[in-house]
Amino acid sequence: MNLYIGNLSYNVREGDLKSVMEEYGTVASVKLIMDRETRRSKGFAFVEMPNDEEAQRAIKELNGAEYVNRTMVVKEALPKA
Questions:
Q1: Whole-model pTM?
Q2: Which of 72, 69, 50, 46 is nearest to 61 (CA)?
Q3: CA-CA distance, 79 to 5, in Å (whole number)?
Q4: CB-CB neighbours of 55 under 10 Å
Q5: 2, 79 in Cβ contact below 8 A?
Q6: Which of 22, 49, 59, 62 could form a cystine bridge with 55, CB 3.0-4.6 A?
Q7: DSSP H helical segments within 23-63, as ranges?
Q8: CB atoms closer than 10 angstroms to residue 50
Q9: How many CB atoms lie within 10 A of CB 61?
Q10: Between the CA of residue 72 and those of 3, 35, 40, 61, 65, what are the distances in Å?
């Protein structure tokens, strides 16, 4: 399942986020979205978790949780319409 992780601190790195997500299961990939011009984080990322049950548990546990002084938004990433 592909997850959207939003409202992240601009200081969070892909490795930091991967460590947090791995507490809930296997993480296939982490893609922190960066601004092309400034090379700074845009404050959101996509995380691919192959096991849907683990991904659902991560959503349940982490959506609304505080991480690096920000309240995270964690939900299933939906394809662009």
A1: 0.93
A2: 72
A3: 15
A4: 23
A5: no
A6: 49
A7: 52-62
A8: 12
A9: 12
A10: 12, 19, 18, 11, 6
Which residues partner with 5 through β-bridges? Answer: 45, 74
Contact 9, 70 (CB under 8 A): yes
Beta bridge partners of 32: 45
End-to-end Cα distance, the chain: 18
pLDDT digits (tens, 9 = 90+) for 6-38: 999 999 999 999 999 999 999 999 999 999 999
Token pair of 9 as six digits: 């601190």
SS3 46: strand
- Pair of tokens at residue 15: 């490795």
